Amino acid sequence: MTFYSLKEFGSILTGREYGKTVYQSIQPKLVSPIGLDFGGVETMGSSFGDEVVVPIAQSQNGQICVRNANSVVSACLMDIADENKLTIDHVK
After folding, report:
1. How many domains does the structure of the chain reveal?
2. Is the pLDDT of residue 29 over 90?
3. Fewest C-beta atoms under 10 Å: which of 51, 62, 78, 85?
């Protein structure tokens, strides 16, 4: 599994439009299975996650692995998972 780092897009990841922009920039580089690395990310908004996390997870049968998610990001990820019926595995 390859982990893609989101810190290059900032430590505060919010906004649906910004999420769309980020997904469009990383989508051509994604090769399944992919995980997301949240190291250096302080917070993430659910609308950003809807545009980045959800399509990646849906392309992988509703599952995605994440690492280095702090408690704020983890809480957001749990909300996104519940709302979209996804499985998010936290790995080290």
Report:
1. 1
2. no
3. 85
Q: What's the domain range around 32?
A: 2-91
- What CATH number does the domain containing 19 carry? 3.30.750.24
DSSP calls for the chain: -EEEE-GGG-SEE--HHHHHHHHHHHGGG--SSEEEE-TT--EE-HHHHHHHHHHHHHTTTTEEEEES--HHHHHHHHHHHHHHT-EEEEE-
Q: Residue 22: which pLDDT band, with cuts at 50, 70 and 90?
A: very high
Task: State the residue for tokens 């990646």.
Answer: 56
Residue that has been written with the tokens 């769309």 in this structure: 20
Residue 81 tokens read as: 């998972």
Asked whether 43 and 77 are in contact (CB, 8 A), the reply is: no
User: Under 8 Å CB-to-CB from 3, ≥6 apart: which residues?
Assistant: 34, 35, 36, 37, 65, 67
